Amino acid sequence: MAEHTVDVRVLTPEGEVFTGEVEQLSTRTSVGEIGILANHVPVLARLRPTELRLHMPDGEVKRWAQAEGWLQVFANRATVLVGEAVPPENLDDAELRGRIEDADARLSESEEGSGAYAQAKKDKERAEAFLELAGSAG
Known about the structure:
There is one protein chain. The chain is of the alpha+beta class. The chain has helices at residues 93-109, 115-137; strands spanning 6-12, 15-22, 24-29, 32-36, 43-47, 50-55, 61-66, 69-74, 77-82, 85-86. Helix content is 29%, strand content 41%. The strands form 2 sheets. A 5-stranded mixed beta sheet has the order 2-1-9-8-5, with no helix packed on it. α1 (93-109) runs antiparallel to α2 (115-137).
């Protein structure tokens, strides 16, 4: 591992999305934006839907629409565990608008505070974040 890189793994339920050395990992936690550089202090953080950016040693920036999940940083290794990670160019505006409409319908049919309401709210937040990224990718 190079002196100024951090070893990163990005995992979803479908499998590994990325593994390798990066100069910086940028994402959003439940309390705000975070950037992880080499030799970062240990972190365990809840992730919010946003754009995950991996700044590669060659200057390239790899990007994904990242769902909610967890970030663990320890011993110069960062693991990103998320429900979904999609390259922005693979996002479909129409499908995402449909997901938002579906979530809105479930929100209106669910009792506030119920598990169904919480899931619908989470699904809507994810679709809205992905739609914002889809707009910036085009």
